[in-house]
Amino acid sequence: MLKVAWSEYYAHPLPLGHRFPMEKYELLPEQLLYEGTLTRENFFEPTLVDERWFANTHDADYLRRLYALELSRQEVRAIGFPQSVALVERERLIASGSIQAAVYALDHGIGMNIAGGTHHAFSNRGEGFCLLNDLAITANYLLGKQLATRVLIVDLDVHQGNGTAEIFRDNRDVFTLSIHGEKNFPHRKEKSHLDVGVPDGIDDVAYGGILAGTLPRVLGEFEPDFLIYQSGVDVLATDQLGRLALTQAGVRERDRFVLTLARKNGIPVMCCMGGGYSRQIKDIVEGHAQVYRLAQELYF
């Protein structure tokens, strides 16, 4: 059975003006239940993991100031959310959900998180709606618990996973692959183990060709025993921030390619959602929903 981390806390309301990025965390599980892709048995409520797993990835002083709501105005501005205890707890819960979905994937091939993909959080600061990097925390958990030896992070959000790249810059046990909009945020890119910048306006065919020419090669050379997949849908042509031209069908084929390749090679996958900023919320929800349909089709 597919297991998906979700909590009502994921959609914890923020002050007016910050609600839009949170809507999908309520609507996506409702859509999956409505259409019958998932039942309530597929969802599990994540529980907070031990604090050491956050401290194993993030700088101690940053965590102390984050928890005490003592970030500077400049740091808060870079994150894009106001400081609050509720927001910090939400991010800790999301990272815990990604860890628990990954552990489930070890036995069942795939585990998923309705939230996550917070790839702009650096070891010592937050950025771009990201406070804690659940991708990095999960990878470090798997390595620290000796549940994996080589973790591949496949980041297909339209924005480069700059925080993840910084955290694992000198780590040979984690490979960071980021295929992103070359001219999009962040304007100052970090160096992933492999960065592939794509041009504005790229379509389904060209994007699919780049992915097909990149991911199999990385799998062959790095030989991971676990894959973390950031499946952002801000690559859609409808996205207000993405500037690419992928259709819903193109996103579905992107996700099918990644999951099929992982399954064929016997590599467990933890899939988290990443970004999505289309003007109509239905486009965001549909973009995310289809990866759950694929997980059911390919694994169960």
Automatic annotation (TrEMBL):
Keyword annotations: Hydrolase
Domain spans labelled Histone deacetylase: 18-280
InterPro entries linked to this entry: HDAC_classIV, HDACs, His_deacetylse_dom, His_deacetylse_dom_sf, Ureohydrolase_dom_sf
The keyword Hydrolase belongs to this UniProt entry's keyword annotation: yes
Gene3D superfamilies: Histone deacetylase domain
Pfam family, one: Hist_deacetyl
Family label: Belongs to the histone deacetylase family.
Protein name, as recorded: Histone deacetylase
The organism of origin for this protein: Algoriphagus oliviformis
